[in-house]
Design goal:
4 domains; 11 helices; Nuclear Transport Factor 2, Chain: A; 496 residues; alpha+beta; binds zinc ion; 10-stranded antiparallel beta sheet
Amino acid sequence: MKLQERFQHTLRRGRALRYKTYKKIGVARHRKKIDLSLFLMFMFCAATFPFFLTPKESHPDVSEQKEVPAQAIEDVHADLGDEPVIEPKQTSLDELEKRVQLGELTLNMASLEKGGSLLSLLSNAGVSTGDRLKIVDALELMIDLKSLKPGLMFMLFKTPDHRVQGISCQIHDGEIIAVIQEEEGQWTPFTAAGRIETQSIRKIGTVERTFSGSAQKAGIPESVVAQVTAALDGEIDFATDIHPGDTFDVIFETKVTAGGLEVGTKQLLFIGLKTQKKEIYRYAFTAASGTTSFYDARGRSGAKAFMKRPLKARSRLSSPYGRRRHPILMYEIFHHGVDLAAPTNTPIMAAMDGVITQLGRKGGYGKYIRLRHTDGYQTAYGHMNGYRQDLKVGSKVKRGEVIGYVGSTGRSTGPHLHFEVLKNNKTVDPFRRHVIPSKQLSGFELEQFLSAAESLHPDFAQHRAGKIPPVQGLRPFQSPVSGKKESKAVNHKKSR
Ligand SMILES: [Zn+2]
């Protein structure tokens, strides 16, 4: 059995290699025929080989023998007549996509899990065992399935009764491979290069009441609006700094298939905001480190403020930072963080981009995570109920990413997050404003940024030459408009 498996594997590898070669020379659509011809040529050579070794005279019927394989080709071809015609049918995927737009089919996205296989992905999608093997077999003709990386997205086209009609996937170099069921149980593989196109969409508008409402009215998708507010978090308070009459200019990227279907997530590329007080222009750029940030037209990134309440729900400040009278022991102790009371298992977020330096139980803190950030900052999170599963010491996390859940482990009287901010190894008040200062791109990165920004926005030169207000780290508390904000600010002073 083992030997047989190995034999089959070798056959399959050989087939994959051959098909790659066919693809290279552009005859992939005829691969079955070429395979067959090669096989018959081999058989023909093998059959005639003995005749070349023996004297010709003793075999007067050699010429007749030669005719036989030619006859065989015809015969085998006749047998293949009702085999599925395997050809790259570029229209098939288009048709599936059109049927999605007509509502006849639904489109589901599924990504390859870490350690998971394509078979398990198909199984989760409800594909029958027989079809699973056929799909995998068909895909294997085109790619080495072992080379598939976790996170690779597959598009599954399903009928209303949840039967998969087709599966497509965009592999590394933009090439699309797909397997489509043309008739019951017959799965046809094909490739189509460059089918998904990236489009940049620009939307300009004026704020009527709120930014997010007006932005969506102008055709900016909700997910992009959320990216705008996240990118300007700490610089602009969308509740108080934006007024009717302010204008916005947003460019985002979307991926569209040849059939006109939008896939994947939309990416924010540019934000322009003209408010009564300032003009902001921010360009998205992915630095060499792989992180995407927003930069002004001169290649300077905005400052990032630490979250003051890194919880994904409303929380109550149950104990502020600083001196306090111990409720039981009645003497003054120093509280090195803030206690944020919230229900058990409320998600806890990283207050800033950083790296995990500690993760585990730590005395009275209970389950504990410590993050290291740039600029001498660290943050710590205590009394957690649990950690996000895939995290460990050394994991990188982004600001706002969930790291664990509220609990009451360690010395704690009820579910709450004990949150500390440290600057140069000394705790500071988390409710004061802490900011990672802005950064200036330089050298080759700056050149790359400038050329990308120039091709993105027609007014780039103006943004760059114009009076660009300095990227602000601190947002001034707005006194006349926001009574709420002011009272908060006063509270901070008291609690310090
Ligand atoms: Zn505490």
